[in-house]
Amino acid sequence: MRAAAAEKLRQRADYTHKHNVKTGRHGWLRLTPAYSVKVVDEIISKAGRPLRIFDPFCGTATTALSAAYHGHEAVTTDINPFLVWLSSAKLNFYGAATIGATRRACLDALELVRTSGVKPCARPALHNIERWWSVESLDFLTKLRPAIQAVTEPQSPEQTLLSIAFCRTLIATSNAAFNHQSMSFKDSEQISLALDIDATQIFSDDTHFVLNGAAENPGGNASVVLGDARNVAAAVHGKFDLVVTSPPYANRMSYIRELRPYMYWLGFLESGRDAGELDWAAIGGTWGVATSRLKDWKPSPKSFASPLLNDALECIARNENKNGRLLANYVEKYFDDMWQHFRSLTAVLAKNAELHYIVGNSTFYGTLLQVEEIYAAMLKQLGFADVECRAMRKRNSKKELFEFDVFARWP
């Protein structure tokens, strides 16, 4: 029985690693649905001279990493402090001495766990945490977290790298699945760390994976800044020649919700209220308090309007659509936020700067929301030239859903 349980856990861990983690130089930890690394590399590699590249929606630093590897200067921003921390770690350079010290620290931390040489930390206040992890898994994780802190200096590269490995182990030992657009739970049967299931090996493997990625990090000029994409000029300075980004899609997906396990365990969130407040501050998410606030939300006085958007809002808000008014408010707020972003972006663009916005369209109650066309209309109204929506690939089985590269040039 224990052997079967062990094999089940290993299969789940392998599945998680294969489907949730991008390997290679952009890898380490895939936390959110990501646009294609290949697409970004193709755009950036076409540059015939050194550029200053900007990504206002950092995510896990795909654009910044690609820019650094191609010898460009890159700046990226995000409103989520956890993503700023993770992306900064992925952009840092790690020498052989740091890699070696982290390997030794991994062994030291696991020895503390094995010998109960560290006081377990408190379980994070993640709602219904027992659904996420079994008692045995929680026992291991609450010992591993303080063990990592005990064998490394605060905010040191070694502690950062082991913390990223810890994030991988969180999911490998959990009952959660991230192999599709949104997080779910795999089944009603929880994983249990039986006596012959080597949880320490999972963390060792994760550390090995992270350090392999860290050893390939670029030495280029790339930085991450905490900032709101609706007010770009307040976060970054100077002019940019190229913008390559994938903003949140208009699909109500809450990236804060998807990042909960990592953010709670690492101390970026302490309560559901914190999560809801951050979701409200971000673009595109509706979860917790952010959803309730949508009911009374009103657009800004200088909001963007177009027949295409107005027609879609009217169709979504029809009385026969359950929660139609709420979802119409969500869509309107999404584009109001993006309009503020595009308006603020013009202040940091160099002459002839190029924009590439990788975004997908969406449907609400059978109404096709042509996000790419609304982006294009916004850019044209702001004076951008050569605006074009380039279809890239289908998003899923629905024939009308595609991803687009919305291209424009600042005159």
Q: Percent range for helical residues?
A: 40-55%
The total domain count is 2
Structural class: alpha/beta
Largest sheet: 7 strands, mixed
Which sequence of strands runs across the widest sheet?
5-2-1-6-7-11-10
**CATH fold field value of the largest domain:** Rossmann fold
Low-confidence stretches: 1-25
Distance between the terminal alpha carbons, to the nearest Å?
68 Å
Would you write up a description of this structure?
The protein is α/β, with parallel strands linked by helices. The protein has two domains: 143 residues, no CATH class; 234 residues, Rossmann fold (3-Layer(aba) Sandwich), CATH 3.40.50.150. The chain contains 16 helices and eleven strands. A seven-stranded mixed sheet has the order 5-2-1-6-7-11-10, with helices on both faces. Strand 1, helix 3 and strand 2 form a beta-alpha-beta unit. Helix 14 packs antiparallel against helix 15. The longest helix has 22 residues. It is globular, with a radius of gyration of 22 Å. The N terminus is likely disordered.
Task: Summarize this structure briefly.
By secondary structure, the protein is an alpha/beta fold.
What key phrases describe this protein's structure?
411 residues, seven-stranded mixed β-sheet, alpha/beta, disordered N terminus, two-stranded antiparallel ribbon, 11 strands, single chain, 2 domains, Rossmann fold
